[in-house]
Amino acid sequence: MKIQKLWFEDEKVFILTDDGRKLWQSLLWYPRLKNATAEQRMDFEYDEIGIRWEEIDEDMSVESFLYDDPEPQGISRLFLTHPELNASAVARRMGIQRSLLAAYIRGTKKPSVEREEEIKEAVRQIGKELVKV
After folding, report:
1. Domain boundary among 66, 93, 116
2. pLDDT (tens digit per residue) in 54-95
3. Is the pTM of this model over 0.90?
4. In terms of domains, do 37 and 53 share one?
5. Residue 6 forms beta bridges with which residues?
6. In which region does residue 98 sit, left (phi positive, over 0), alpha (psi from -120 to 50) or beta (all else)?
7. For residues 10 and 24, is the Cβ–Cβ distance under 8 A?
């Protein structure tokens, strides 16, 4: 699969492939790219393996456009849309490994329904404590 065209629209990055497919990914997965200027976003190089934005030090594999989850959901979405949440601190508070929570956020591991609710409840509790300030 080769990229014929790349563009940005509505917090997403799109590609048109040489076989005519239009694929996309959410920019929530790529915070440096999400926060880049229009000029920085358009300053890229690509080949059959991936796309490189040198100035902002961001890489995106072509293969990642084929993943099942182009838009973050659940725990991933919660932490990616609220970067003020410190995942390491939340993990410590819950008594789980930081690397495990990080894998849930990246989407490389999926929490059970129960674990996802525990994480959400920990974040809700932090919110309740902050409201008291």
Report:
1. 66
2. 999 999 999 999 987 788 989 999 999 998 999 999 999 999
3. no
4. yes
5. 15
6. alpha
7. no
